[in-house]
Amino acid sequence: MRESGENYLETILMLGKKNGFVRSVDVATELLYAKPSVSRAMAILKKSGFITIEQNGNIILTEMGLKKSNEIYERHRLITKFLMSTLNVSEACADKDACRIEHVISDEVFSKIKEYIENK
Fold it and tell me: Does residue 107 contact residue 96 with C-beta atoms inside 8 Å?
């Protein structure tokens, strides 16, 4: 999965936790993307089995989508915490950079960051 797909899944997860439901317009508003771009992305995520879309437009993460979005969110959360605690980076900066790093970091490096944070 590409970075953009991961960002969409993470956004769907977070909006669902925040609002209790997610629609394409909510994703577009959150990410500041055009509605047609989000609609196209939702079609790809649906075809790939990560989401379903109900009759009323609510976007639901499938089991596979929930698993993937939770993995992405965990990476984001722990990388943010790592940058703040070890490098004394501001939360805003750490959060912004974690959003980029979470998509390219190797499993090995992430595993070491996770181990470091959990044992700190």
Answer: no
